[in-house]
């Protein structure tokens, strides 16, 4: 008991010390703005997605001293900053940010953070969504949902409701945080007119509780600048060091290609143009321009990924069901896999996923037992669907599916049957029916695997349909997921000819 009281006292002391320093953010920050950032990524800036008040008990005293950390910080070599300024955030951004009313209450209990933001019932957030600040970009190379945040799309603070934006951000993440997910933050475009107040950053920090941090597997900070360093230094004393392992600083867009499906990212035009300038200015850059995309020219006749269904059928002895789908579903169609909690929600080792993809493309045998991970074939199945040259539900049906949610309950079943039975190409119909017959078995075990029709729709919807430009807004994803969930719930009626 005595030890517990001492720990709490120590925590309160550090909290009050931090609050005093943060309340004069501009002054203290300017006095130490030339300090470097530690090279160890475990100590890098951690965004407002993780907060564990127990970390305060174990905080290193040196970390709490923002004014005197010059003695303990020696290098910033691992904070990969852009080789040129973005030309938007003024040189005195610390002074500008220091004017924010930033008075964090560190003594508050984190247990109820998830409930501090009151959601407005059935709020469509159209006023916030119109800016396109947050976008959904399918799955990454690890099978995780990708959420993109673009600073250049933030409007002027004079015409922007920051409190609603926070609720909108949480509303978006709430749809994906139960599964593994990835965040991509395009920093270019942040300026003194649209920058988020530090008081907002602190409120967001407190609002994002454990359910948001648990399944966030990676955060890519694209085109970082000194502003990132400044915020990192400001929040460092109360941030868990373990989160630093999830953060990756990205200097150039082409660096994302090894982790993400680059051509699916919703990259704003100003960010693309800024990246071209950075690449051109880089003396040692011999890599491909960020605006280039992979080609879909098959390397093998047996290729399964990134080709049309018709190509697979032609080189698959006329069998319309692709080999990769047959083998993944065959491996997962058993009690052990079907009863695995979170099946299709978890990601898999990227090297293994790439290895398995290569084996399928080369027509070589694949033994999933060798990998000892149920999630490998699950990720492979989702990846295969997402990387088809055209989605299973086809571009032709895209606009009609976008309006499906607006139909009455009486209209939906006949419209869905018409789209699937009469409008969908025969080969696509067979592949979709084959997939949904298996997913129906997954739903039958939802009491154990927690994968309801709604959850499966969130996972598979964006892999069954996307726009021609391969980019999607949150609301288009919502409409696609609604249609997918309807197909899952009534598959026995819809797929019966």
TrEMBL record:
Region entry Disordered, spans: 1-48
Source organism superkingdom: Eukaryota
GO biological process, one term: small GTPase-mediated signal transduction
Ranges of Basic and acidic residues composition bias in the record: 1-22
Entry-linked Pfam families: CRAL_TRIO_2, RhoGAP
The Rho-GAP domain, residue ranges: 307-495
Location of the CRAL-TRIO domain: 124-279
MF (Gene Ontology): GTPase activator activity
Annotated Low complexity bias: 23-40
GO CC terms: cytoplasm
Protein name per Swiss-Prot or TrEMBL: Rho GTPase-activating protein 1
Source species of the chain: Larinioides sclopetarius
